[in-house]
Design goal:
about 210 residues; globular; five-stranded mixed β-sheet; Nucleotidyltransferase, domain 5; 2 domains
Length: about 210
Amino acid sequence: MLAIDASGERVGIAVLADDGTVAVKLFAPGRPGLIETLPPLLAEAVAGREITQVAVTIGPGSFTGLRTAISMAQGFAAAAGLPLLSVTVAEAYAAAFPTLHRPLWVAIRARKNRIFLIRDGIAEAFADADIPRTRIPVALAGDAAIEVAAILAASGGGVLLTNARRLDPVWVAHAALARQAAGLPAQPAQPVYVDPPEAKLPAAGLRPPPV
């Protein structure tokens, strides 16, 4: 299985053998220039290996990273005639802790003073000061986990801070295999967004289409 993740600040690619061992795992900065970085990284990962299925994270996360990784996964799978499996960021983090006996919250820094918080598979955006409190013991993962853990601990919540700050593409593969084993329906290979894109139209408007 080929697994691709570009939902965060880095892009990760892994290939798992049939016996579950990691054949290769590669990382690169997610920006700038992801569209130039990902293709050679993908080529290096699959060189000399027979890929039978592809997995990719669909979000939430980086707008550019998600679109680029999903497009690359779709193109590779379509060209090779392979099944494409989609997993959410929450599913991938959960695959890292299969025996966790408490709810796992995933906290992702969206931008300054804004955090994506995924609870029970539902992603919502909060200002730092508006992070919801809970008295139920929870575990935290993600690149904003430390900040959210501090907020919850200060309000008396029971917090287990995991060591998972950034996604590992191996977890993406494990999450996809878990969906298969459970017989869950396939998810569309479309980006999962929480906030709308920040791109703005030019002040003068869009150019007219060519004649």
